[in-house]
Amino acid sequence: MNNPSYYPNYYSIDDIMVTQERIPCRALRSLEKLGFLDSSEKSEDLENNQQLELPLWYLSQQDERNPDFGLQVPDIFTSAYKEIYKADANYVELGRLNKFYYDLGMNLCKFEAGDDLAEMLYDTAKERVKGLKDLCNNVSNENLVDNKKLEHMERMLYEVGSRSHKMFADWLQEKAVNINSTELVTNHRKRKRDVLDGDEGGSSQASQRSSM
Questions:
Q1: Which one GO biological process term can you cite for this protein (predicted)?
Q2: Predicted pLDDT at 1
Q3: Are strands 51-55 and 22-27 parallel, antiparallel or unpaired?
Q4: CATH code for the structural domain at 76-192
Q5: pTM metric for this prediction
């Protein structure tokens, strides 16, 4: 079941895909028999401070941090990228950085630098939505499949926005047609009434002359 909401949902396919994203982390202590979690590790155990990547769902247990691993915020959510977003957020290809950029970022807000990350997500979305509005107002047959500038949520907003814009444009066109039709009918009736009034006036004058 696909849930359009972006609040973590156990049954949402989108949320499953987001939480499946592998995140860099390190072991906070030696962990026996867990060496298989690191595909590059040949030992049966994980050493303290060992670097590896694990799915987000494994690092987050019931909205709490996994006590055995310390998560490292991915580079695309760090202050270095924040400056890039500030310079020109519309130029950044978010879809190429991560298909679920906003969803992943919101999931990471409960970890380190949550407030700064939330602010960065808000500012980036606020800036990019302007370009998204312009894109929706110029609906075309452009194929967005290969457009790496838009990530998943932006694509959904584009689909809704472009469809709404097209419906509004169709409504305006239909209304204009109806208005023109109404004006034509009104003008036709008016001309017909003027003709009838003219005929009645001519008949009246003729009958007066004949009575004389």
A1: mitotic DNA replication initiation
A2: 40
A3: antiparallel
A4: 1.20.58.2050
A5: 0.71
150 contacts 95 by C-beta, under 8 angstroms: yes
Q: Which residues pair with 61 in a beta bridge?
A: 64
Distance between CA atoms of residues 187 and 180, nearest Å: 10
Q: Using DSSP, state whether 185 is helix, strand or coil.
A: helix
Indicate left, alpha or beta for 62 from its phi (over 0: left) and psi (-120 to 50: alpha).
left
Encode pLDDT of 145-170 as tens digits: 456 788 988 888 888 888 888 888 88
What is the dotted CATH code of the domain comprising 1-72?
Answer: 1.20.58.2050
44-97, pLDDT tens digit by residue? 888 999 999 999 988 876 556 678 888 888 999 988 888 888 888 888 889 889
Separation between Cα atoms, residue 73 and residue 102, nearest integer Å = 14
What is the DSSP track for 22-57?
EEEEEESS-BTT-GGGSTT--SSSBPTT-EEEEEHH
Q: What is the pLDDT of residues 2-35, one digit of tens each?
A: 444 445 567 788 888 898 999 999 999 998 888 8
- N- to C-terminal Cα distance for the chain? 92
Helical (H) or strand (E) element with 64: strand 64-65
Ranges of CATH 1.20.58.2050 domains, the chain? 1-72, 76-192
